[in-house]
Amino acid sequence: MICLGIESTAHTLGIGIINDKGEILSNKKHTLETETGGIHPIKAAQAHELFYDSLIRSALKESKLTMKDIDLISFSQGPGLGQCLRRGAVIARSLSLLYDIPIIGVNHCVAHVEIGKKLCNLKNPVTLYTSGANTQIIAQSNGKYRIFGETMDIGVGNFLDNIGRYMNLGFPGGPKIEKLAEKGSKYIELPYTIKGMDFNFSGIQNKVRQLLEKNSKEDICYSVQENVFAILVEATERAVAHLNSEEVLLTGGVAANKRLAKMIEDMCKQRGIKYGICPRSVSGDNGVMIAWQGIIEYNSGKRQKIIETEIDGSWRTDDVNIIWNN
Ligand SMILES: [Fe+2]
């Protein structure tokens, strides 16, 4: 079975093709970037409209397939930005109707976890999912992916992008902050904002704004990373201890940050447990994870009619029933 997956929750349009063995046949994406300032949802949605045709064509070409070879179409049904999700859903429905291929809408956050498990060879990890809009600590319990800790305001990726915007680094700011942080050495005290298992970033954001006048960008970026990643790893470790878990998965766009990966690695090595850092090509938003999620849900008997494919911008991870074999 071969599935074509469409990811369109935010600034990335991803087209992925994967087979039921988990072999990635193509992973094409277009991400809207800017020199300065942030991303407007309507601009991202317009970019999706402009790029979907060429991305689908090049994904099919790379995998040496035509639409006739595709057995399933899957797409991100939520959560995400309404404008962006709607574009992906319309493309998926059109392909499904035009070529008479079954369609499945999947949860974007759950898809991040499942592709990470597959590629890192993990069975039942505590997952730290860190992306632009989402930052959650997820683990399976009683037939659902439960959220053991999460951000109370913005996702860590958006937080880093906002810091980048204060420094005129453009979008995305995260990778540029990582580079600057490598040159920083002085730790500047920042609020350590974790309460129980949940955390928030807007207080740190305001503090950074004040610090910009009197400190170097390098030291600020270094301090921001040390502080914020420690918060995330602390909450992850507590979930691991509570669940007596043997595995940790780091995924989402911010999983590409080497400092965060190193902190997760150190924590897991100290505890003597297994860890996986999702490969960069599929840790950020991508169509492959959506395609893989489509396959495992289809193979578990899920079927959807077109009328059931309405998007849900606030679909929570813990609202998804795990019907597939885990
Ligand atoms: Fe994501």
Beta percentage is: 15-25%
Helix content: 40-55%
Secondary structure tally: strands: 12
Structural class: alpha/beta
Query: What is the typical, i.e. mean, pLDDT?
Result: 95
Largest sheet: 5 strands, mixed
CATH architecture of the largest domain: 2-Layer Sandwich
The number of distinct structural domains comes to 2
Rg of Cα set: 19 Å
Number of helical segments with 4 or more residues: 10
Question: How would the blueprint of this fold be written?
Answer:
Blueprint: E1 2-7, E2 12-19, E3 24-31, H1 41-62, E4 72-78, H2 82-99, E5 103-107, H3 108-120, E6 126-130, E7 135-141, E8 144-150, H4 156-166, H5 174-182, E9 194-195, E10 198-199, H6 202-211, H7 217-243, E11 247-251, H8 258-271, E12 274-277, H9 280-283, H10 287-299
Parallel strand pairs: 1-4, 4-5, 6-11, 11-12
Antiparallel strand pairs: 1-2, 2-3, 6-7, 7-8, 9-10
The structure holds fe (ii) ion (FE2).
Walk me through this protein's architecture.
- The chain is of the alpha/beta class and 326 residues long.
- It folds into two domains: 2-112 and 284-319, 2-Layer Sandwich (Nucleotidyltransferase, domain 5), CATH 3.30.420; 120-282, Nucleotidyltransferase, domain 5.
- The protein has helices at 41-62, 82-99, 108-120, 156-166, 174-182, 202-211, 217-243, 258-271, 280-283, 287-299, and strands spanning 2-7, 12-19, 24-31, 72-78, 103-107, 126-130, 135-141, 144-150, 194-195, 198-199, 247-251, 274-277.
- The strands form three sheets. The protein has a five-stranded mixed β-sheet, sandwiched between helices.
- Helix 3 crosses helix 10 and helix 5 (174-182) packs across helix 7.
- The longest helix is centred in the C-terminal third of the chain and has 27 residues, at 217-243.
- The radius of gyration is 19 Å and the shape is globular.
- The model has no long low-confidence stretch (mean pLDDT 95).
- The chain binds fe (ii) ion (FE2).
- Fe (ii) ion (FE2) binds next to helix 3.
